[in-house]
Design a protein that fits this description.
About 45% of the residues lie in helices and about 10% in strands. It is mainly α and about 200 residues long. The chain has a domain of about 120 residues: Orthogonal Bundle (Arc Repressor Mutant, subunit A), CATH 1.10.10.10. It starts with 13 loop residues before the first strand and ends in a 26-residue tail after the last helix.
Length: about 200
């Protein structure tokens, strides 16, 4: 199967999360379900349950909760009879933290979602480090993390994040040669002001 060219790739579908959506999404299984559908594409509740080591009943229930707020939907081109296929409605979720200042429950949900993203990042890094000695030298040299403390104000931090995001979208849209050593790679962009002088 040939990869699409940059001109053939659609722009990522984005959703600016509202209060109801963040409250619904703030659940570990729901975040994993949405992530799986975004990364691996449409799937049935049974396949998702097997992949995520849970039961089909729980998976179906939480998919319906995500569907109620427009984050997932049934894939009309794949369903046959009682077999329902689900798909992500968006590629990217966005929100402004200050957009929930007047809703205590939504604000708490956003804080949970952000903390969960940090847990996911740590888990992915630990899993890679546990198996990296079995990987090729090319992958071992390419993968990793780094950090840098920069003197920024809010406007420059926002600009930096926007530029980094544009680079990520360019790499997402570039065609990949058939047969190349391609794997899904999780890239996290984070920028947090230091809250104390010591590291």
């Amino acid at each position: 199967m040939e990869s699409s060219s940059p001109d053939d790739r659609a722009a990522p579908r984005r959703v600016h999360l509202d209060n109801r959506q963040v409250r619904t999404l703030a659940h570990p299984l729901r975040m994993r379900l949405l992530g799986s559908l975004r990364i691996d594409g449409p799937a049935t509740a049974t396949a998702l349950a097997e992949k995520l080591a849970t039961n089909t009943g729980a998976t179906s229930y939480h998919l319906r909760q995500l569907a109620e707020v427009g984050l997932v939907s049934e894939d009309p081109d794949r369903g046959t009879g009682r077999q329902r296929w689900w798909q992500a409605e968006h590629d990217v979720s966005e929100f402004e933290s200050t957009g929930f200042d007047d809703d205590d429950d939504a604000r708490a949900a956003v804080q949970w979602i952000q903390a969960n993203q940090v847990r996911i990042m740590a888990d992915l890094a630990e899993r890679w480090m546990a198996v990296e000695h079995h990987q090729s030298p090319a992958w071992r040299d390419a993968a990793g993390m780094s950090d840098l403390a920069l003197p920024l104000d809010p406007a420059r931090l926002r600009a930096l994040t926007g530029e980094l995001w544009a680079v990520l979208m360019r790499y997402r849209d570039e065609a990949v040669a058939v047969g190349a050593d391609v794997k899904p790679v999780h890239v996290f962009v984070a920028g947090f002001p230091r809250t104390e002088e010591r590291w």
